[in-house]
């Protein structure tokens, strides 16, 4: 599952001035004069907006205390809306609720999911904010049981269906955008998400304006298997889709209605090992592909069990440059073990 921007990431993000500048871009509109800077501050328990000219706070939005107790995805729109998604504290992918500040008031949005439609939390609606300040966009993958359980109670087969809609979680007045049903899938390992397709939606900084991406993949038992990525663009009142030449594993940034995008190819390491392959960062633009970071070529660290990767990226407003942060898979320590194949 793609990495998300969480509370701890905000702390790392604010550790250096260049990253704070990048976050100012996260809530920008079309021109530099429209940029806004929001900071998550643990001491005050709030998201604080600062005036970019004077550096003084101009607005403060208190957030739930549990925001700082565990990593939770956080999205802030240019309009000042704040969305925090709270997951179960055991670290799995099951959502408990969303906290939404709409610019005037806070509300708790609690997904209602039938156990018969869920597998490992994928049926719980995830949200992307809308740039126009209207209802959020929601997406989920239902897995309806289509085969009888075996003697041990494991599901033999399900029919996965990816849905994306805009509206309220209660349903009335929702605008259907995507509904894709996959073929019946055998849950051979007992966990359907290890063998069945799910969908993941992405938009720049978690806010949809006039384009977004959807990637279909199988989460897998050890490593995900990526099937396809689609670019959805809005023309008038309709969304049109275009299949990309290759599936994107992790999108970091995109501009110009998806014409330019930066994506990461994560390490294939599993089972406690972090450096089984070379992490890469790729820029795609008008059909061309440019590799801007190749871990093993850059650091020659094939024989060591420590990985370096682009944890975030930002395309410049004119689309000519990319800033990205290289992060290590582990903090500094006296010794690093050799790779098991080295």
Task: Describe the overall structure.
The protein folds into 3 domains: 1-110, no CATH class; 113-248; 252-342, no CATH class. The strands form 6 sheets. Strands 8, 9, 10, 11, 12 and 14 form a 6-stranded mixed β-sheet that branches. A 4-stranded antiparallel β-sheet has the order 4-5-6-7, with no helix packed on it. A hairpin with an 8-residue loop joins β10 and β11. 6% of the residues lie in helices and 41% in strands. With 342 residues, the protein is mainly beta. The model is unreliable at 7-31 (pLDDT under 50). The protein has helices at 7-13, 17-26, 295-299; strands at 37-41, 46-50, 57-62, 74-76, 82-87, 95-101, 106-109, 126-130, 137-145, 157-166, 175-181, 185-186, 198-202, 207-208, 211-218, 225-235, 238-243, 250-255, 260-265, 280-285, 288-294, 308-315, 322-328. It contains 3 helices and 23 strands.
> What general outline do the C-alpha atoms trace?
globular
Helix content: under 10%
Number of DSSP strand runs: 23
How many structural domains? 3
In sequence order, what are the helices and strands, one letter per element?
A: HHEEEEEEEEEEEEEEEEEEEEEHEE
Count of alpha and pi helical runs: 3
**Largest sheet entry:** 6 strands, mixed
Provide mean pLDDT, rounded. Answer: 82
Radius of gyration, Cα only, in angstroms?
Answer: 21 Å
> What percent strand?
35-45%
**Unreliable runs, pLDDT <50, ≥5 residues?**
7-31
Distance between the ends? 28 Å
SS-derived structural category: mainly beta
Give a quick set of tags describing it.
single chain, 342 residues, mainly beta, 6-stranded mixed β-sheet, 3 helices
């Amino acid at each position: 599952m793609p990495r998300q921007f969480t509370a701890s990431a905000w702390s790392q993000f604010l550790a250096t001035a260049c990253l704070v500048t990048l976050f100012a871009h996260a809530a920008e509109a079309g021109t530099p004069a429209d940029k806004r800077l929001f900071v998550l501050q643990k001491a005050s328990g709030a998201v604080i907006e600062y005036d970019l000219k004077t550096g003084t706070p101009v607005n403060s939005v208190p957030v739930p205390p549990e925001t700082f107790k565990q990593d939770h995805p956080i999205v802030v729109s240019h309009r000042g809306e704040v969305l925090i998604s709270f997951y179960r504290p055991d670290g799995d992918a099951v959502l408990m609720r969303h906290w939404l500040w709409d610019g005037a008031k806070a509300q708790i949005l609690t997904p209602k999911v039938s156990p018969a439609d869920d597998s490992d939390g994928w049926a719980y609606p995830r949200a992307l904010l809308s740039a126009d300040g209207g209802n959020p966009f929601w997406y989920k993958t239902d897995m309806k049981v289509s085969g009888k359980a075996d003697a041990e109670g494991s599901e033999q087969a399900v029919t996965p269906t990816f849905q994306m809609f805009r509206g309220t979680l209660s349903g009335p007045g929702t605008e259907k955008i995507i509904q894709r049903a996959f073929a019946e899938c055998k849950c051979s390992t007992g966990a359907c998400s290890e063998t069945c397709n799910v969908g993941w939606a992405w938009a720049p900084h978690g806010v949809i304006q006039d384009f977004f991406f959807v990637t279909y993949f199988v989460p897998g038992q050890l490593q995900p298997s990526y099937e396809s990525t689609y670019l959805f663009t809005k023309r008038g009142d309709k969304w049109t889709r275009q299949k990309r030449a290759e599936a994107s594993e992790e999108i970091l940034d995109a501009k110009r209605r998806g014409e330019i995008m930066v994506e990461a190819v994560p390490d294939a390491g599993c089972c406690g090992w972090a450096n089984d392959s070379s992490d890469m960062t790729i820029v795609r633009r008008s059909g061309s592909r440019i590799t801007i970071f190749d871990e093993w070529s850059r650091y020659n660290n094939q024989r060591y069990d420590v990985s370096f990767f682009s944890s975030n990226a930002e395309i410049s407003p004119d689309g000519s440059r990319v800033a990205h942060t290289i992060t290590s898979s582990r903090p500094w320590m006296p010794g690093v073990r050799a790779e098991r194949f080295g």
